[in-house]
Amino acid sequence: MKIAILGGDGFCGWPTALHLSDQGHEVHIIDNLSRRWIDTELGVQSLTPMDSIQERCRIWKQETGKVIGFHLLDLAKEYERLRQWLAEEAPDAIVHFAEQRAAPYSMKSDRHKVYTVNNNVNATHNLLTAMVETGIDAHLVHLGTMGVYGYSSVGAPIPEGYLDVEIDTPTGKKGQEILYPTRPGSVYHMTKSLDQILFQFYAQNDGLRITDLHQGIVWGTHTDQTRRHPQLINRFDYDGDYGTVLNRFLIQAAIGYPLTVHGTGGQTRAFIHLQDTVRCVELALSDAPAAGARVKIFNQMTETHRVRDLAEMVAKMTGAEIAFLPNPRKEAAENDLIVKNDNFLALGLNPITLEEGLLDEVVEVARKFAHRIDRKRVPAVSAWTKDIAGRVETDPEGKRLKSVS
Ligand SMILES: NC(=O)c1ccc[n+]([C@@H]2O[C@H](COP(=O)([O-])OP(=O)(O)OC[C@H]3O[C@@H](n4cnc5c(N)ncnc54)[C@H](O)[C@@H]3O)[C@@H](O)[C@H]2O)c1
């Protein structure tokens, strides 16, 4: 297949591009490199030294003989160029990773909220309308998030996107299937909830074939392909805005920083290893819905864990200390989470779990590149409301040291 990977310079997009190229697909990356600019804005860098996207593609060709094309294009702002590219290249499939994906970044200030909404909603809508306009028959696979469901303790397993409900009508109860009601917990999650409505409309109105993957928190850094050459190494975010919880605990342990647990750490979240992310995208691509069918929704996660249990597990493994800090987010202190992921299991996913030794690999990577870490960027300081901002702990390490002396 000819596959366009939108956001292919990112943490999930790059290893997915390599995985699909390795399987013999013709892969084209489209990215505006905004994530690299955001690193500059925040004064951070990937823990791992990333080469330019052109250099990474050159190394991949040198190692495998396979070509990955790179196209510098802003999906949210360059509609005409996007439409033209789709018309000329007519990809068979499009994998859409290209959004601002950090909840803390989306809550930093009004400007960051505006940017996240403009970028994410326009990128997705531009893509959908360009697909209709050009008449290409591509299967769109989008990376959504488990966060659209919200994290209240419903008690029942979260189904894959749809919920059967009964509605009282004048002639009695009627069954209906609805999109599972969204309950976004940040502006970022809100944009992913809006994406769902855009997909529903374009599938129903124009017969676009769409799969929406509600992904859990991704951990790990290497995949089979990124291990092949030091310059194919993947991005690894450790900072308080973009770093994801388990990867952050592992780098904190590696550099002797206290593991920063927010509140009681009673939040339960869904997780997936990066190697399973790329495998899930491959499986989703092989199972496209028919034109006119409803949007196919998969829960792309393999296990759920409570945050404090993860911290305790990493502390036990590495001897790290745990620091319980005021929570910068507005969320339930404790929640349960039961999630269905039957669709991917039925397609043959054999989940990688936390027990499989890959935690050590992340700690090793973190130790190797520890000199690149700016400890001041480790705490999460983006507060969800002005009230919460006053309580955020900006220097857990300093406080710990002071209290010891
Ligand atoms: N990383 C996770 O834990 C996680 C969990 C759930 C869902 N997801 C979803 O997966 C997708 C990829 O996540 P990631 O961690 O790889 O993020 P990332 O920030 O590393 O990568 C996103 C890429 O998209 C590009 N991009 C953003 N806006 C663009 C635009 N307007 N035009 C062109 N390119 C643009 C960025 O430059 C970046 O390279 C996101 O949509 C995210 O919501 C990620």
Could you explain the architecture of this structure?
A 7-stranded parallel beta sheet has the order 3-2-1-4-5-8-12, with helices on both faces. The protein is built from 14 helices and 14 strands. The termini are far apart. The radius of gyration is 21 Å and the shape is globular. It has one domain (2-400): NAD(P)-binding Rossmann-like Domain (Rossmann fold), CATH 3.40.50. With 405 residues, it is of the alpha/beta class. The relative contact order is 0.15. α1 (13-22) packs across α9. The chain has helices at 13-22, 34-42, 53-64, 79-89, 103-106, 110-134, 187-206, 245-254, 274-285, 307-318, 342-346, 358-368, 386-389, 396-404, and strands at residues 2-6, 26-31, 68-72, 93-96, 139-145, 162-169, 172-179, 209-215, 217-219, 259-262, 268-273, 296-300, 303-306, 322-325. Helix content is 38%, strand content 19%. Bound molecules: nicotinamide-adenine-dinucleotide. Residues 7, 9-13, 31-35, 74-76, 97-101, 119, 123, 143, 145, 215, 217-218, 235, 244 line the site of nicotinamide-adenine-dinucleotide.
